[in-house]
Amino acid sequence: MITDFLQGVVLGFGAAVPLGPINILIMNEALKFYKNGVAVGVGAMSADTTYLLIILFGLTYYINNETVLAWLAYLGAIFLLYMAYLIYKNRDRSIKRIQTDTKGSLIKHYIKGYALTLLSPYTIIFWISVSTFSVQSRYPLVVVCGMLFAILVWITVMPYFIHKTKHLISNTLYSKVAVISALIMAFFAVSMVVHEVFKN
């Protein structure tokens, strides 16, 4: 059972750690407020749990088809571009000013994380692959628990580290980071659309 849990932990970190839109959003929000970064991460984790429940109740057929994945890709790309625009728009504002403007909006950040993850077709594909792997193990539920544990650790520890080191980031550097973050998110958005258009 411990082995199954550790396998899940490894899979969870493998899914959570790589640089992607959700991690970029968590990092940007954690620079303002630690709670904001965690709220984005919890939203993303909730979206993961949503797809896990869909798979658990045998509703995979309704989401794992070309039409649904295509719509998710296009909607996800639009949402990514919107997030990229917001980050780029605030690139020249001081971190202290942004902190004042964004304080107390945890639900909004939760929704951002939830929507960004839910609208990604890669999330569906990933969890379907994981469910296939976990079913082959002796304790599939333990594997899933290990994954969720790893994701929870990542979305709480990573933004904490970012927030605690924000004093090392000047406003000029923050502006550059914001521009790079916006470009990366825009790149992911375009990649999703290109992949969907030319996959056949």
UniProtKB/TrEMBL annotation:
Keywords: Cell membrane, Membrane, Transmembrane, Transmembrane helix. It is a multi-pass membrane protein. The keyword Transmembrane helix applies. Its main location: membrane. The keyword Coiled coil does not apply. One of its GO terms (biological process) is amino acid transport. The chain crosses the membrane at residues 6-26, 38-63, 69-88, 109-129, 141-161, 173-194. InterPro entries: LeuE-type. It is found in: Cell membrane. GO terms for cellular component: plasma membrane. This is Lysine transporter LysE.
